[in-house]
Design goal:
By secondary structure, the protein is of the alpha/beta class. The protein has 5 helices and 39 strands. The strands form 6 sheets. It has an 11-stranded parallel β-sheet, with no helix packed on it.
């Protein structure tokens, strides 16, 4: 493997041969094992030395024109890919691409040296595992436990008695509340807040009386949480995010929510208090789930959909009203408001016909 090089791609570059990649990642290589790859890129890359992938059939036409040195393809596209040059054939090109990006990041992404920065504040009672990194101006409070190889970025605050599992990475300005638990191999991006108070208030003669949130947050292993996402602590029991969950940027998870393993939510999703989300569920961008509802395993919610009742059967659910030019939308909205009256008129007409 050669040192890093720059060829104009937005992805960090290094020199690696196709043979080296296949030895690590598998796949059936057609072409020269010594072919040099400098970067990972798209099929329509203008750069040299790029490895690309073809997963979506609608981009298949680009196979004949791509400048990529090598293309990752399925068996169905093997012949076309081999005609144009080197190819790696695999049953799932998209999954192969994902693993390639992981390998590439591990070899190109900067990693801070282990140790505690002089400007960080670490309570003497905190327990730091082997190879832990605590960045500039970070704060680690009393009773915190950090597993091996945890990375705590600049300006991170970890509250008292919180526990962070091995190989978890906290980017700059993450805040972890007291008593919260984060599993192993998690990634929390900048601005994430875990364990702020849930939104709980009791009405009292025209004012609001705060309900102290006495629970915490428990997050499993291999969870990734996008920038500026917030997960509130529970009112009594803990808020729970199970293993393998993926949350995008700007997601709000309210108190006492439970999200099942390997579910995923896109940007700007909001989940209200005490909702129960099953395993392997997905919620599209700006989807909303009301409080105290239950979603079964393998429920998939389309973007912009408001879930206002529990869903007990797996499947795809949509509820977004299609947009239109404003004049047409107002007419359709007015018609919707009259549906109840129209239904009653139809029922009366049916009764008259029957009689």
């Amino acid at each position: 493997m050669t040192g890093q090089q720059q060829v104009g791609s937005g992805v960090p570059n290094l020199g690696v041969t196709l043979g080296q990649l296949v030895d690590v990642l598998g796949g059936e290589l057609h072409g020269d094992r010594d072919g040099l790859i400098l970067a990972v890129g798209p099929l329509d890359t203008p750069n040299d030395g790029v490895i690309a992938f073809l997963s979506n059939p609608k981009y298949r036409v680009q196979l004949s024109t791509t400048r990529a040195v090598c293309v990752i393809v399925s068996p169905a596209a093997k012949d076309e890919a081999v005609v144009r040059g080197a190819a790696i054939v695999t049953d799932d090109p998209y999954l192969y691409f994902a693993k390639l990006t992981q390998w590439w990041a591990a070899h190109t992404r900067p990693r801070p040296a282990a140790g505690v920065h002089p400007s960080a504040v670490v309570d003497p009672s905190a327990v730091l595992g082997h190879g832990v990194t605590v960045g500039p101006l970070a704060v680690v409070e009393s009773g915190v436990v950090l597993g091996d190889d945890v990375i705590v970025g600049p300006h991170v605050v970890i509250g008292a008695r919180a526990r962070i599992g091995a190989q978890t990475r906290l980017a700059a300005q993450v805040t972890i509340g007291f008593d919260c638990v984060i599993g192993s191999r998690c990634i929390l991006h900048s601005g994430v807040v875990i364990g702020a108070d849930g939104f709980g208030f009791a009405p009292n003669k025209g004012r609001w009386e705060k309900i102290e949130q006495l629970g915490a947050v428990q997050i499993g292993d291999d969870v990734e949480i996008g920038a500026n996402t917030c997960i509130d602590r529970g009112a009594l029991d803990d808020t729970v995010v199970e293993n393998g969950v993926k949350l995008d940027n700007l997601v709000q998870i309210a108190h006492n929510v439970r999200i099942g393993a390997h579910s995923a939510m896109a940007g700007c999703v909001g989940v209200a208090g005490s909702a129960r989300i099953g395993a392997h569920c997905t919620v599209g961008g700006a989807g909303m789930i009301l409080g105290h509802l239950t979603l079964a395993d393998n429920v998939h919610v389309s973007s912009g959909t408001l879930i206002s009742r529990s869903i007990h059967q797996p499947g795809l659910y949509s509820g977004a009203f299609p947009f239109d030019d404003n004049a047409s939308w107002e007419k359709n909205a007015a018609t919707l408001r009259q549906l109840h009256a129209l239904r009653d008129r139809i029922r009366n007409l049916e009764k008259q016909v029957k009689s």
